[in-house]
Amino acid sequence: MSYSGQQLLNQLLQYGMDAQPAGELPAEITGIAPLEIAQPTELSFVSQTKHLHKVAASQAGLLLIKPEWLEQLNKPLPALLVPDPYAAFAILAQFFYPLPRHASGIHPQAVVNRGAQIASSAVIGPFVVIEAGAVIGEDVVISSHSRIATGAKVGARSRIDNNVSILHNCEVGEDCHIKSGAVIGGDGFGFAPYQGRWLKIPQIGRVLIGNRVSIGSNTCIDRGALNDTIIGDDCIIDNLVHIAHNVEVGQGTAMAGQVGIAGSTKIGAYCVFAGQAGAVGHVTIADKTTFMARGAPASDIAESGVYSGFPAIPHTQWQKTKIQTRKLTELAQRVKQLEKNVAKFSTDD
Asked: I need a labelling partner for 95 at 20 to 30 A (CA). Which of 73, 149, 190, 277 fits?
């Protein structure tokens, strides 16, 4: 599938992005590629000023770029001037490479309880299990070997990849994507110590997932012990993330791989957890807070900002501490030498 430069411009405008043409737009663009390898019929983009020098050697036929960067180019190219080239790339990538369409219907090797409600436009793959009381919305796609348990709900246009478990009474919103191996609504880690053994605490809450949420492969989101575990709209959660029981995650929050959130933590909107970051249980985190890799708070975070380390401290303070830590060996040697000098002077006296 190919599109003209004008069609791509129109697509951005229809999405609501402020876009303007620069130069003569090409008649045919066949795909998207990085600057270094883009061909004359391909679109590319510059999202950071440090990449502007690559434009001179690029053969790209059309460029996504900020208007203020255009005059810095040594080699002008036909361009679409946009305020956010990376977001424009995302929009046009979806336009060029839409998800494959599936014929609606229930595969004959799926196991579907008569008490389940399945929209006629839904796609149910082979070896899928859908239990009594489950509700599957319009245009939902559920791939092979996944399980939608009793009373669970999947909202319209959501995609459930292979080997996903959405357990009893949990709810997934509209336009979500849950990737292979994820478990939504497994029991939380709830046990009470009693006379040298652990008593299992029934986990009677649910997991409620908002709209437009992406959940990565082999991620586990545990059901609440009493209250529900809640994931807000527009959250993006990477592979191998664990979210414990009764956690609340605010709208638009992002979690990279191997993040771990302990139980009953309340996370604000638009927070960011870098790889292997996390939080201890029962803390509250302010909106728009970022934790760098392996950062984790041990108490409430009341002010938004960037934090590092454990217990998490403001990132600038953590950087100063790391610089000082690197000098500890040198400092120890200096102290040892001073002690020798003091001992020598004492002997001389």
From this structure: 73
Beta bridge partners of 186: 222
Mean residue pLDDT across the chain: 95
**Six token digits for residue 166:** 């959405």
From CA 294, how far away is CA 260, in angstroms rounded? 10
User: Catalytic annotation on 53?
Assistant: no
Looking at the chain, the whole-number percentage of residues with pLDDT higher than 90 is 87
Which CATH number fits the domain 105-317, given the four candidates 2.160.10.10, 3.40.50.720, 2.40.30.20, 3.90.1150.10?
Answer: 2.160.10.10
Strand partners, 199: 192
CA distance 271 to 232: 12
Q: Which fold has domain 5-96?
A: 3.40.1390
- What's the predicted TM-score (pTM) here? 0.90
Residue 130 contacts residue 113 (beta carbons within 8 Å): yes
Catalytic residue among 51, 177, 242, 245: 245
